[in-house]
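Let us practice reading a record.
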Amino acid sequence: MVELGKTLPGLLRSYLPGQPLNPRTRERVILAVTEVNGCRYCAWIHGSWQDFLGENSLVDADEALLTYARACAEAGRPLDPTPLTDVLPADAVASVRATVAQIEVSNLVGNTVDGLIARLTRKRPLDPVNTAGEAAVVAAAIPLAIPMLAAGAALRAASRLAPPVPAAQMPPAGEANLLVHLLAQLAPTLLANALLRSAVLGSPVVLVVGLKAGKTTATVRAGQGRLALENGISPDVLMVVEGDVEPLLRLASGQVLQEARNLRIRRP
């Protein structure tokens, strides 16, 4: 609780736009701690959150983050975050510390619920003092636990209802340019978020967007459950997204922390 109080600003920043810690990475850290502590409630809620966000390639810093998170959970106390400074900026390190502290507290509360249930069902001795303490912790956590469980259920439902990413329709064999091939490969990653996937692929009208990466261009048509890719910028595009091809190449090889960070949108 002391660590959580010290790092509270970092925790708040980790859930705001422009957060220093990628949301998928944050959920990996949370689930790593939860796995050590064995809290089934947190595993269900944050497993639902991770499914909603979708899988993405591991980034360079992930292994260091997960090692630090597991070490803190096994030690049962905050550890020196100095090893993280080699792979993360200071604001991201603060968010990691806050995330670990927050999920440690949540795991403790969840395991206390199971402890109370075990006492009430006589699987553990019904010690009046400890039972009263566990009941007090559970009562204090209920106002926060109910919305979190409801959010987990909503995220899980959204993940199940989201359409799968279809195989992209491509130009004839041998004619697709590099950008089209990259977009086809990256489609499951770029549409990993269940809400985004539902909005784009479930759109009743076909959305037409042009992309320009370096000197290479492509057109994406998505909607009505279909995904089609074309060479060049089609005359009917709604907007053109510009960027360099290098970030896409990095994303394809799993080496970028936050994809499409420098993209710009302009009217065609």
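A brief commentary: Residues 253-263 have pLDDT under 50 and may be disordered.
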